[in-house]
Write a structure and sequence with these properties.
The complex is a heterodimer. By secondary structure, chain A is of the alpha+beta class. In chain A, 16% of the residues lie in helices and 33% in strands. The radius of gyration of chain A is 28 Å and the shape is globular. The radius of gyration of chain B is 26 Å and the shape is flat. Classes of the chains: A alpha+beta, B alpha+beta. The interface between A and B is large, with 43 and 44 residues.
């Protein structure tokens, strides 16, 4: 199905690209076409002009004049659909100089012992040199790192530090201790165009023996809008092979040498999940880092379903030419300009939505329409065409931005905790939950006990600041706990009959109590009520910390509350 | 308790005992919860049983559940004799069989049960037909432990642990002290050594007596109040308990109602006249301590048991409400096949304990349930929210063009049909039966799933052909077909 509107990807290009170049194509009829050449294939050239892109058949072209900063774009040899591997070219591939090896020692939190860390482990991966003397890499390679080292294909390791980190997008920016490195390691430029399906591409990154930089040539499979971390949908470029975890962070380029993203690859329980993070996601992130303005992540939370089934179409009175996605469950919290159950979304900001919910992306791809709400994140209203009953409507829909979750993402922070007497308290986070709920038995155990960790997992906070406070570890051995069953993984409901709102509130309640006893109630079925003598519980804490080699009674935020008066 | 007869049985006695132990054979066809219109593939089973009074055979429920072609065989004879299940008490894992030809009992007299519980360390012989051979096997051990514990489902009872070897096939065979039966072998703890379990006579007698009086045995009465131990010193001070006072504290009464006789913070100190310790145990004998719940049967009248509580510092006599068979949302099938109803490509079924046990054992399924907030996970331990509540699931689609554009609904929980919340499976059948709408709209309790819309008339019209295509004999189970065919 042809789109009637020009792709609006162009609008993003203009505002995102910080640098200016100019190429000129001189046509056989004498006219000149100015712009920036994005792709040159054996039959045509794609040139970007302002907000638009133009396709020019090569047979119409007399000559091409490129600006000095344009990298050499090689035409593929005619007769083949895939370009020759760059490794066979006699010329040195500059992208090998723009790729680095990243290694880090990670000191990750241990969510079952939040006062300490998991044993250190090493991560080895890749990175891309970017403008401003910085390295772009995957956040998961460097999150919680105690030391990070970067090195080029030859040369020694240089110490690096994190400048910016986004765990949702899995991107991180590093700075080096020695900027001389960048003298012979030029930055890549991220180009927003996405290769066509089937096209061979080049990915650069750490070799399997961790000693050099390699280039591989998989081919482009698909552009998807799907879940990677937690509840956030994002644009992903899928290649036809899985890339090894040590390729993560390295640049990916089209056959013509145009960098279209960086690899993201991680291993979880023996399975490798890999894709390429597209340029537009990266450029938005880098812009956030540069300006300090967080472009918050917008999402469509309303649930929709395909409009394919004939009975469903008849039920909604759809004619044969009507297409779109059906709204099945309103989850957004807007009060005006909302969708309703059974609305059919037929178009979003200039794109038609088909019965599978796909809209055009660029010239050759289709992605889920919900992408449009994210792409324009930061722009408040998105024009949406809707059919409601027999009526066609236009709704200026404002997608929800950065919905807070009851069980949130830690985003690289250390878990908050507080110890009193033999008891440890912490807060439920996405990272804690994934470390905890790894087995079917554990999930069923949480289910049988009616744990809020399961029941409320996707909820928003019921009121601002609500957290689930839970017990991450068994008691520290101490007579005060005599006769009590271990409350491990139980969620605290109330202390001294006061319903607990969050960890800070729990600390405040315990700090300010003047009762003889501290009584702790939990949310789960079959849980005990724990009663401790208040002054003894407080007094026992120091000895318990020292017996168990615990450095601090709590994280800085909880200790600040405990020590205040 | 009276002493038990001499423990060393003579050779003649052993032969006589063996004569009253039978091997049980049958073909099991268990329920297929994912395809409720059919059964699992047949499986040949074998185990043990013993002859009891009244020309009956006593064996385990788990052996004969879902079994047809039941037969027994005496130890010396080759002929098998057809048998039928007379009663089954799944909760306590006991079943009583009748024989088609009762002449068997003329030459195979019953084994008598001992009165009272054996003592710890008494020597025990277990008779049966375990794996590893064909003829009668006898193993020897002692009574290692007696406790009051769960029988796997919602039933609790006395349970004896012995160290005589008990293996697959021993189920249903008698454990003997001398020439008297002290219980029935029912299971063993896998992964451990020499831990086998015996259902003691007391549980057997309770079941037989109840069944003889007419009706099913629904287990021992329990209470729905939640207790905890009063061992912790700070807890005791908080409750103002004198040092000498022993008992358990109520932390959640079954009902919040002010009329309910038990209150939060009540400390239960006696069941009848029997004192309760801080862990909720009562002493039956110098070598035997069990959970206080054991006494509800003997000292209660079925609805209440008199207890003493300390409330507000004073001792009070209170009637503690007790009941058998506390309702659970995901009920045990108890030997029946799952209820279901088919309309077009849709197979609706009532979720059972067996269904949620299956899903909990499959990691990929559990992960799906967790990501979609399925009630099959979040309501696992629940009671019904109202009497008669079912959880109704949709099984995988039967192949049909009507489902184009919809993802397979396997195990999604049906919440609403045509705008009406579904209370249970029969209610859903009635809704489908009585609908005058052109379309059937189905909404699910799970998150991030579609709604289904079908044309009512197409669903009805396609059912016969779809069933024929899939070799399905009946559109529904007896209960749903009765509802479907009932004129409202």
């Amino acid at each position: 199905m042809k789109s009637r509107w020009l792709p609006t990807v162009g609008a993003l290009l203009v505002y995102a690209l910080p640098f200016v170049r100019g190429d000129t194509i001189i046509l056989k009829d004498g006219t000149e076409v100015d712009g920036i050449i994005l792709i040159q294939s054996s039959t045509k050239i794609l040139i970007k002009q302002g907000a638009a892109t133009k396709m020019i058949p090569l047979e119409d072209v007399a000559s091409i004049a490129k600006s000095p900063s344009t990298p050499e774009i090689e035409s593929p040899p005619s007769g083949t659909s895939a370009p020759a591997s760059r490794a066979n070219s006699e010329r040195h591939d500059p992208l090998l100089d723009s790729t680095v090896m990243v290694s880090a020692t990670l000191s990750e939190p241990d969510f079952t012992k939040p006062w300490t860390k998991s044993p250190p482990r090493e991560e080895h991966g890749s990175g891309a040199v970017i403008a401003g003397n910085r390295i772009l890499t995957s956040a998961h390679l460097v999150n919680y790192a105690s030391d990070i080292e970067v090195r080029g294909a030859s040369g020694s390791k240089i110490v690096a530090q994190i400048v910016a980190l986004d765990t949702t997008l899995d991107l991180a920016v590093l700075k080096l201790s020695d900027d001389n490195f960048f003298a012979n390691h030029p930055p890549v430029e991220f180009m927003p165009s996405v290769p066509n399906s089937g096209e061979t591409v080049s990915v650069y990154g750490l070799s399997e023996n961790y000693n050099s930089i390699n280039q591989l040539s998989p081919s482009m499979a698909a552009l998807n809008f799907e879940y990677y971390t937690s509840n956030y949908l994002q644009l992903m470029i899928r290649l036809n092979t899985r890339l090894d975890p040590w390729m993560s962070g390295g640049p990916a380029a089209s056959a013509a040498g145009s960098v279209f993203g960086i690899t993201c690859s991680r291993q979880d329980e023996g399975q490798i999940f890999s894709f390429v993070i597209p340029s537009e996601v990266i450029l938005r992130f880098l812009d956030e880092v540069k300006t300090g303005v967080r472009k918050r992540k917008s999402m469509l939370y309303d649930q929709t379903q395909p409009f394919e089934n004939p009975a469903l179409r008849a039920f909604l009175g759809a004619g044969p030419g009507e297409h779109g996605m059906v709204v099945t469950s309103i989850q957004s919290k807007q009060e005006v300009n909302t969708f309703r159950d059974w609305d059919i979304i037929t178009g979003v900001s200039g794109e038609e939505v088909d019965d599978q919910g796909m809209v055009h992306f660029g010239l050759t791809h289709r992605v889920n329409f919900a992408y449009e709400y994210q792409r324009l994140g930061g722009i408040r209203e998105t024009l949406t065409f809707v059919k409601r009953g027999r009526v066609a409507l236009q709704i200026f829909f404002t997608p929800e931005i950065d919905r807070a979750l009851l069980i949130p993402d830690l985003k690289g922070d250390l878990p908050a905790y507080f110890i009193l007497g033999p008891m440890v308290f912490s807060t439920a986070t996405i990272q804690m939950f994934s470390q905890l709920a790894k087995t079917a038995q554990m999930i069923s155990y949480l289910g049988i006990r009616g744990s809020p960790l399961l029941k409320r997992r996707e909820e928003k906070p019921a009121f601002p600041g609500e957290q689930l406070v839970f017990v991450p570890s068994p008691f520290f051995p101490h007579p005060l706990a005599r006769g009590y069953t271990e409350p491990t993984f139980s969620v605290v409901k109330a202390v001294n009959e006061i319903p607990i709102k969050n960890l800070g509130h729990l600390v405040t309640v315990m700090r300010d109590s003047r009762e003889d006893f501290v009584t702790i109630e939990f949310a789960e079925k079959f849980s005990e009520i724990l009663v401790f003598p208040r002054t003894e519980m407080i007094a026992a804490t120091e000895g318990i910390l020292s017996d168990n080699n615990v450095r601090s009674q709590g994280s800085p935020d909880t200790m600040a509350i405990w020590n205040a008066k | 308790m009276p002493g038990l007869p001499s423990q060393a049985a003579s050779g003649a006695q052993i032969d006589a005992i063996g004569n009253s132990v039978v091997k049980v054979f049958g073909t099991r066809r268990g329920p297929d919860v994912m395809k409720p219109w059919t059964k699992l593939d047949p499986l040949e089973i074998s185990g043990s049983g013993l002859v009891i009074e009244g020309n009956r055979i006593l064996t385990n429920a788990h052996l004969v559940q879902y079994v047809t072609n039941l037969q027994i065989q005496g130890s010396q004879a080759g002929d098998r004799i057809s048998a039928k299940v007379e009663t089954v008490s799944q909760g306590i894992d006991l079943a009583v069989l009748k024989l088609d030809d009762e002449s068997f009992f003329a030459t195979h007299p019953p084994l008598m049960r001992a009165v009272g519980l054996p003592r710890i360390r008494d020597s025990v012989l277990v008779y049966g037909y375990p794996t590893g051979g064909e003829s009668l096997s006898i193993t020897k051990g002692i009574v290692s432990r007696i406790d009051f514990s769960s029988y796997g489902g919602t039933h609790f009872g006395l349970r004896m642990q012995i160290d005589a070897a008990i293996n697959h096939g021993n189920s249903g065979g008698p454990a003997m002290v001398g020439d008297k039966v002290i219980g029935l072998a029912c299971s063993f703890l896998s992964g451990a050594q020499n831990i086998g379990y015996i259902i003691p006579n007391e549980e057997i007698d309770l079941m037989l007596k109840r069944v003889a009086a007419g009706g099913a045995y629904r287990g021992r009465p329990m209470s729905a109040d939640a207790y905890q131990s009063t061992e912790n010193p700070a807890l005791r001070r908080f409750l103002h308990l004198d040092p000498g006072v022993q008992g358990v504290v109520v932390i959640k009464p079954a009902l919040d109602d002010s009329a309910y006789p038990i209150k939060r913070w009540d400390v239960v100190t006696r069941i009848g006249e029997v004192p309760v310790d801080n862990q909720g145990m009562v002493k039956l004998r110098d070598d035997l301590q069990v959970s206080m719940t054991y006494l509800y049967q003997g000292l209660g009248d079925g609805a209440f048991v008199p207890v003493t509580v300390i409330r507000g510092g004073r001792a009070e006599s209170v009637q503690l409400p007790i009941a058998t068979d506390l309702p659970v949302l995901f009920a045990d099938l108890e030997g029946s096949y799952p209820s279901y109803f088919i309309l077009g490509p849709l197979v609706f079924s009532r979720a059972s304990l067996q269904l949620v046990a299956l899903t909990a054992s499959l990691p990929a399924t559990t992960e799906w349930l967790e990501k979609h907030d399925s009630p099959l996970l979040t309501r696992l331990g629940d009671k019904p929210a109202f009497p008669g509540e079912d959880v109704v699931v949709l099984c995988p689609f039967l192949a049909s063009a009507l489902t184009v554009g919809y993802r397979d609904p396997a195990l999604r929980v049906v919440k609403v049909v045509n705008g009406t919340p579904v209370r249970n499976l029969l209610h859903l059948v009635a809704l489908l039966r009585d609908s005058k709408q052109k379309f059937v709209v189905i909404e699910f309790a799970d998150q991030h799933v579609e709604k289904f819309v079908f044309r009512q008339q197409e669903l009805v019209a396609s059912t016969e052909a779809i069933m024929a295509n899939n070799g399905i004999r009946s559109q529904g189970s007896a209960d749903t077909m009765a509802e479907w065919n009932r004129t409202p």
